[in-house]
Amino acid sequence: MTNPYPPLLTIELLADRNRNLAGLVVDAAVSNGVALDELPWQEELSGLAGRVSCFFIPGTPLQDAMTAASLAPIDRGVVQHSDQLAALAPQARYIAGSWYLAPPSKPTGAQAASRALALQLVQLVTADADTHEIEAVLRRDPALSYHLLRLVNSLGMGMSRQITSFSQAILILGRAQLRRWLNLMLFSSRANDERSAMLLARVAVRARAMELTAKAAGVDKSTQELAFMAGMFSLLGILFGMPLAEVLKPLKISTTLLNAVLEHEGDLGQLLRLIECIERKETAAAATLLAQWQVPADEFNRLLIEAHGWMLDVVQESRGAGHA
Predict the structure, then answer these.
(1) Engineered SS bond to 323: which of 166, 188, 220, 313, CB 3.0-4.6 Å?
(2) Where is 253: in which H helix or E strand?
(3) What are the residue ranges spanned by the domains of the chain?
(4) Angle value at C-alpha 104, between 98 and 106, nearest 5 degrees
């Protein structure tokens, strides 16, 4: 049976008892309870399910198609929903909800210093500072320095020799990719912050989904990059436990980007609102916003799945780095 109103996907993040990403719950708003035997984005969903545990809520009209895409029904009894950091019930295997968006506990001295240096580096790169200035800050954080060289060396970049200097690494990586990597490193796992692994997953999906939606809408490359940055910057206040305006104040970013993340103004602000609606499962409001971008629902569902796949790469890299 053909559904005249293609469903919009929502994908909820699940954490395990150690507060690390453990699975995804996929759902879709289907008009009038219409059942679909096959989904246009079933192959992409199946690929995602091959990388991480993916579940659906029993009783959904899409459950046959979800099962065909290798998703499993989830037992509600093993999922604990929480909007605050809380102890888990003995029977709970997974934590759902927005608990990782709660205000952070006071960071340790080393943790606070590391994040402050990462933010300083973001500021320098955004302002297109001289490479020597960026090097000077990198030298003050051995962990950040190590992970930068590790990233560039792992990329290979078609070079036969290893990268051993900061200036060489910065040159090869390029300013745009350096800025993106630094943004992600801000959210990377830190000791004594139980939120950081899931916060990294959330911000990675948000930023990548905004970038891919902008690309699907046909905007230029620089606007796609701005969309990614807007997604990243929008959660910095949560990360630092400070008003977002205060965190962004030292950064020399465009008025367009600033107004988008602080006031949801302009096209970027509406794009941020769209992704936030998807995160909150407000699919009717999301559909209205999506129509303004002239991106078909099925195409958006595909890019949302792609954004979650990209997030898995980021989470895997973060775990491999062991950034403390």
Answers:
(1) 188
(2) none
(3) 8-101, 106-187
(4) 170
